[in-house]
Amino acid sequence: MENSSITVSAPGKIHLLGEHAVVYGKPALLAAIDLRVTVKLNPTTYIDPIVHMYVRNTIEAVVKKYLKITNIPPYGSEISSQLPIGCGLGSSAAVSAAYIAALLTFLNIKWDKPLVNDLTYEAEKVFHGNPSGGDNSTVVYGGLVWFRKQSHNRKLIQPLNSPIPAQLAKNFILINTGKPKETTKQMVEIVSSKFNPSTSLRARLQSAKFRKLFDDQEQLVKGLVTVLKEGDENKLIQIIRAGEKNLESMGVVSSYVASIIRKIEKAGGAAKICGGGGKTKATGILLCYHPNKAIIEKIAEGNSLPFFSVDLGVEGLRKE
Ligand code: PMV
Questions:
Q1: Which of the listed residues 14, 17, 19 should we mutate to test ligand 1's pocket, taking the one with most ligand atoms within 8 A of CB?
Q2: What average pLDDT does range 290-307 have in this prediction?
């Protein structure tokens, strides 16, 4: 066992597009962002802040179960995060991935990204119920990730080779509308309750509507990949607007946030919720784009909401 402390970090993620539809086998495009979670394990100091005991217990249970380990020697752990929690930036996936990699290092178990990704997915199931696996894949592998859940245990995780062109990348900005009242798990359940063809005609019509929304998101995600390669700003704005409209039709965007997005659109930009969303008021982070970012900043200020810029497509899980 090593004497010195072990430090591992993982980035947060953002859904460029495809959330919710991804739960039903459609592709999503995600980007790792340059806000990181850092986990430090200390083999000689056994102090643990109470606040993350739930995380520690969950991760240890996953590692014990899947790697058939009976005993974990004592250690101390520290978690520090630059990510707002519960706002759609993948904080739970980033904490889990960094913690798992640090714990495996502490246990002298050789790990690679596929192993950490599989274990992080299991931890995400404990935290979120029925996750697609997109969040954990992005924080582990980093970069821009094309993700598709093909079946329960088959997932396509394809890194996009070229970065977002600089002339587009500089115009993205995030607004934090606050932590939603609803959890991602609840939002996923809301969509699944509507996309559930039962015998009544009304239910079948609603289900058909959702199928169409998911198909449409798939086409938009494919379009987004092309646009990000070619750098076409007008098409990018159109795709984000159309993707957001579909998310609103799925019922995952509150009217409060929809009204802010309308202001951004009216001013010539585009914005979308990222991740699970929310029904009551806050929906977490908004991904916004405008040829002149200052206009978005003004709208955020006018609504008393914090905003910030991030690098999209940064390095994934790494030992520090
Ligand atoms: O709210 P987040 O950041 O955990 O993102 C959830 C994305 C969903 O597509 C709604 C669910 C999933 O597991 O992919």
A1: 19
A2: 97
Rounded to the nearest whole angstrom, what is the distance from the C-alpha of residue 159 to the centroid of ligand 1?
A: 19
State the distance from the centre of ligand 1 to the C-alpha of 188, rounded, in angstroms.
8
C-alpha dist (Å) from residue 122 to 116, 137, 248:
10, 12, 30
Residue nearest to atom 5 of ligand 1 (CA): 275
* Ligand 1 centroid to residue 22 C-alpha, Å: 8
Q: What is the pTM of this model?
A: 0.93
| 120 closest CA partner among 58, 47, 182 | 58
Beta strands 28-42 and 144-151: pairing type? Answer: antiparallel
Q: Which whole number is the average pLDDT over 116-133?
A: 92
CB 146 within 8 A of CB 223: no
| pLDDT at residue 172 is higher than 60 | yes
Q: 58 near 100, Cβ under 8 Å? A: no
What is the CB < 6 Å shell around ligand 1?
A: 19-20, 22-23, 88, 90, 131-132, 134-135, 184, 188, 275-276
185 Cα: distance to centroid of ligand 1 (angstroms): 8
Kindly tell me if the per-residue pLDDT of 73 is higher than 70. yes
Cα gap 304→45, rounded to integer Å: 43
Angstrom distance (rounded) from CA 140 to CA 163? 17
